[in-house]
Amino acid sequence: MSVVLPTALLTDQYELTMVRAALAAGTADRRSVFELFPRRLPDGRRYGVVAGVGRALDAIERFRFDEEAIDFLRGRDVVDDATAEWLAGYRFSGDVWGYPEGEIYFPGSPLVVVEGGFAEAVLLETVLLSIYNHDCAIASAASRMTAVAEGRPCIEMGSRRTQERSAVAAARAAWVAGFTATSNLEAGRRWDIPTRGTAAHSFTLLHDSEADAFRAQLAALGEETTLLVDTYDVEQAIRTGVELTSGRLGAVRLDSGDLPVMARNVRALLDSLGATSTRIIVTSDLDEWNIAALASAPVDGYGVGTALVTGSGHPTSGFVYKLVARATDADPASPLVPVAKKSTDKISVGGRKHALRRLDADGVAEAEVIGVGAPPQGDANDRPLLVELVRGGEVVGAEPLDAARERHLRSRSELPLEALKMSRGEPAIETLWLEADGDAQANPFQH
Amino acid sequence: MSVVLPTALLTDQYELTMVRAALAAGTADRRSVFELFPRRLPDGRRYGVVAGVGRALDAIERFRFDEEAIDFLRGRDVVDDATAEWLAGYRFSGDVWGYPEGEIYFPGSPLVVVEGGFAEAVLLETVLLSIYNHDCAIASAASRMTAVAEGRPCIEMGSRRTQERSAVAAARAAWVAGFTATSNLEAGRRWDIPTRGTAAHSFTLLHDSEADAFRAQLAALGEETTLLVDTYDVEQAIRTGVELTSGRLGAVRLDSGDLPVMARNVRALLDSLGATSTRIIVTSDLDEWNIAALASAPVDGYGVGTALVTGSGHPTSGFVYKLVARATDADPASPLVPVAKKSTDKISVGGRKHALRRLDADGVAEAEVIGVGAPPQGDANDRPLLVELVRGGEVVGAEPLDAARERHLRSRSELPLEALKMSRGEPAIETLWLEADGDAQANPFQH
């Protein structure tokens, strides 16, 4: 499974035709700055979570055009011979800055800043957007779930509800946002995430009786295992499980029914049978609101599937990748000129962005401060948000996934309390836009 | 890019622990029938579209546990030594029947029927669900779009809005459902789908003037290319494009604004400039309702992104994979016994399913007829829906992707007219459930 796939064709055709036309026109090497950013948060959300950074860095490193890819592009006349030759030697040689993985973001946050020649930088557009738009959507939903679960473990179980490779990325994003384990084995192997899983209803149905099925599972997985108790009659199943383990059963799983009521009944039954340490795991169509509704129920863990891998109503993040500045000729020393499309409904702001998180004296986040063309002046408490990810084509921002996970919990804990409300709301903090001279400008993304 | 990845870890852990427990209990080889089916259509939808069959067959063929996968599973104690040995020799040896790709489905349709030993069949659960849940969601949305586009070409452009490998699968599913091309290059290479793409706003912004950018694009891609005309002023851009091509410009693309109004103004302008053959392509946040709203506008093609790759509000299909029958011992000759979980909110029906589409004398679909335990009696016009996909472990149901695309258009054209309404509705035809003796039974999925 450790085969490394090239990523260069995970790309929209227009990037290749632009490279072709720019090479012919002599404009391909103009130094350029592209930025990946959201114009807004998903409707009603109060913050977003950065995820996919490590995957994006992998994708940049693997972005090479092999012979088969070039033959395909040439055969379809997507590129000409000169472009094919240029692609054969392609390797991103520029710089990338970005919000580190796990960080919080808001409307307009410059999540990724790519600087390089136009052609080399425009080619990364689709693959970066694909990774960020997906992974941040999952992490943003996951963070709301782990926040409202208030320390109870959340297990990612959504693989079956999303495309098979998205499933692996989703498990990774959920881990960044505080999930404690995944059912997805490839995510366990590839990203060293803890994995969980015991048995489905089919296992009970396979056997001649529920007791036979439980005996088989206990023999193989031990008394600490989790028995699925709602195939036939929940009460009977629990009695059987407790009896077979002399009260030492690890956990029971409920996958249907009115969970708050059932959890209370099941807890009372387990306690009455002496199985006071047996945990209750619930897994039926959970989302952040259902988790909130279970806060006072005697539940020991949540398994979350569909709502997680579909971003709980927002399966994509709405990021765009826009040229914001470029040189007027191919001289690497030429100054950058801000550029922006004129549009009233699809805004972008010319000029390279810088960003910091403004914190008050108690360390609570107050504002996202975005400097256009120059880094904004920060106070002592302020935290710069952009870190170096790629320098001269070399990845310098790789880090263990646990670092992202810890950063997320830390950054989320800085937010004002209302950020964690489940109700629809505005972004949890305001965004201040500053000109290069430090003067404030109107928020371009506020309607 | 033609590296073939094994698929065996694209799996939930519980499938492996069930195999482990069943091997130890001596129940792993009980002949079993699993079915993949929807309990309902996404809310308000009138039909669903089968896609992903070819990908699923590939995944079954590549479902092998290599040494690295087995080391991982053994290292985490997901499996024991006996199970590890069994996995090393794993190769699905059973039979698979299913709805062919492109076919229409309804609530309860048995899209896939897998027969084999319990252990070998349960292992396919997650990867089959991942593929079908994703690909059918995309194809079902895509079919509504191509239906309402009424012959105008639809181009899939959503790669950037979904995970990078989902993007490839989405382009494939859209093609099955009648899209005419994709922007995704890997989908072009892997599945031989026509690809499209010319230039983004960044290409115009890169150059010193819009005219310079257009000249560069026309020089590289020819006069038949599509110019993006809304970077600055649409009218001026069109005048420039027409002038540079002496009226022979292939197409203009509008990516913002009030499209029905703009399309009319742009058509009038093009015609007044003598560019009567220049086509108008629109690409801004289209979905099936926006496409319907453009039906009377002078538009020549639609580029669809976000709404397509997110299933237009329904990013997953809600399929489940359930054990419906199994033998009482490991003897391959033992009869199958129907099994089903007892549940009021998550229904499945015991017994192997068969299915046909009932057509009236005019060839219009009237009903989905599902036989439980035996094939239903069909009339002369009725069409059996299940085809053989895998026989004794060998894939026998592979077909060119174009066959699926043609089948979809054919099957959709059989539906009653109201099936193609964009408004929320009930499934376009009813489903009849028949017992093995031919007696009708109540529809188990109707509440």
Automatic annotation (TrEMBL), chains A, B:
An annotated GO BP: NAD+ biosynthetic process via the salvage pathway
Gene3D superfamilies: Aldolase class I, nicotinate phosphoribosyltransferase
InterPro entries xrefs: Aldolase_TIM, NAPRTase_N, Nic_PRibTrfase-Fam, Nic_PRibTrfase_pncB, Nicotinate_pribotase-like_C
Modified how: Transiently phosphorylated on a His residue during the reaction cycle. Phosphorylation strongly increases the affinity for substrates and increases the rate of nicotinate D-ribonucleotide production. Dephosphorylation regenerates the low-affinity form of the enzyme, leading to product release.
Keywords: Glycosyltransferase, Ligase, Phosphoprotein, Pyridine nucleotide biosynthesis, Transferase
Pathway this chain belongs to: Cofactor biosynthesis; NAD(+) biosynthesis; nicotinate D-ribonucleotide from nicotinate: step 1/1
E.C. no: 6.3.4.21
GO CC, any one term: cytosol
Domain of life: Bacteria
Occurrences of domain Nicotinate phosphoribosyltransferase N-terminal (ranges): 9-132
Catalytic activity: 5-phospho-alpha-D-ribose 1-diphosphate + nicotinate + ATP + H2O = nicotinate beta-D-ribonucleotide + ADP + phosphate + diphosphate
MF annotations from Gene Ontology: glycosyltransferase activity; nicotinate phosphoribosyltransferase activity
Record's keyword annotation contains Transmembrane: no
Membership in a protein family: Belongs to the NAPRTase family.
Function: Catalyzes the first step in the biosynthesis of NAD from nicotinic acid, the ATP-dependent synthesis of beta-nicotinate D-ribonucleotide from nicotinate and 5-phospho-D-ribose 1-phosphate.
Name recorded for this polypeptide: Nicotinate phosphoribosyltransferase
Natural source organism: Auraticoccus monumenti
